[in-house]
Amino acid sequence: MHDNLKQLLETVATGELSPEKALEELKYLHYESVGNFAKIDHHRNLRTGFPEVIFGLGKTPEQIVQIMRVMESKNPLVMATKISAAVYAQIQPSLRGLRYFPLAQICCLGESTMKKEGTITILTAGTADLPIAEEAAITSELCGFTVKRLWDVGVAGIHRLLSHRDVIANADVIIVVAGMEGALASVVAGLADCPIVAVPTSIGYGASFNGLAPLLTMLNSCATGVGVVNIDNGFGAAMLAGKILHRHQ
User: Fold this and answer.
1) Could you tell me if 177 and 183 are in contact, meaning their C-beta atoms sit under 8 angstroms apart?
2) Strands (E), the chain
3) Could you give the CA distance from residue 148 to residue 230 in angstroms, rounded to a whole number?
C-alpha cells in the first residue's frame, strides 16, 4: 500500500496527475488488516461521507475491541451496531470513552465532526418498535443530523397520527418503523410530500413471519415515494435518509 501511495504522490509532483484525480484514486486505495479476521476500509468516509460501521452480531468481544482500536486511530467517530448489553459490559473496560445507547444497541467512540443540515423525522407504529427506531435515531444523530421522534402513532389508533399532521407536512424525510402488518408506511406516504423510508420490524404475531408480512406490505404499498429497507434495519434506514438529505444540500 505504501508503495502505491508513494507512486501516486510522485505522479502528482511531476504533474502527470492532477490533485483532483489523485483524490479520486485515494478513495479506493487504503485498507488495514486486523488480525486474520477483518480488513478496515479507512477511506470509506472519503468515498461515501461516513466511516465504516461495525456490525456487532457474529463478532466476539475481543474482535470488536481490536477493530474499534484500529478505527479510532484514523476516524473521529467509530460506531458499532447490534451490541447487546452483555457484549458492551465485556468491551467497555478495554475502550476508554466508549459510549453506549442501550435501547438502540449502539456503542461509539468519539463524535461526528460536522453538523449537517436537515431533520430526519422518525415515526413508530408501536412501542415495541422502539429499539429499531432508536437504532435509526441514534445513527442519524451520530451522522450529524437533527432527529425528530414521534412514537406510538400506529394505524390501530389513527387519530394519534392525524393529530401530528403538521409534523408530517413539514418533514424533510421520514423514517417509518412498523411491525405487525406494516400499514403505517402507506398511510404516512399518503399524507407526506417528502421521501419515506420504511423499516419493517420483526414484531408481530405468528402470521407476521418475523417481519416478512410488514416487509411485503411496504413493498406493495400503493402510496408513492416509499423506499423499503430490510427487516429490523434501523441503521440502513438512517443512512438512506441521510444520503437523501445530503443530495439536496
Assistant:
1) no
2) 32-34, 38-40, 54-55, 77-81, 99-101, 106-110, 119-124, 146-150, 173-178, 196-200, 226-228
3) 22
- Work out the number of other CB atoms within 10 angstroms of the CB of residue 46: 16
pLDDT tens readout for residues 68-122: 888 887 777 888 999 999 999 999 998 888 999 999 999 998 877 678 888 999 9
Residue 65 CA to residue 77 CA, distance in Å, equals 15
pLDDT in tens, 120-154: 999 999 999 999 999 999 999 998 899 999 999 98
Q: What does the block give as the cell for 28? A: 479506493
Owner of C-alpha cell 402513532: 153
Q: How far apart are CA 245 and CA 249, in angstroms?
A: 7
Could you list the beta-strand ranges (E) of 135-193. Answer: 146-150, 173-178
* Contact present, 80 and 88 (Cβ < 8 Å): no
Tell me the residue length of the chain: 249
Q: Are the CB atoms for 188 and 170 separated by under 8 Å?
A: no
| Structure-block grid coordinates of residue 210 | 418475523
Contacts of 114 (CB under 8 A, 6+ apart): 144
Report in angstroms the alpha-carbon separations of 204 from 6, 201, 210, 238.
56, 8, 7, 23
Q: Which of 43-47, 137-141, 176-180, 207-211 has the lowest mean pLDDT?
A: 43-47
Amino acid at 132: I
Mean pLDDT of the chain: 85
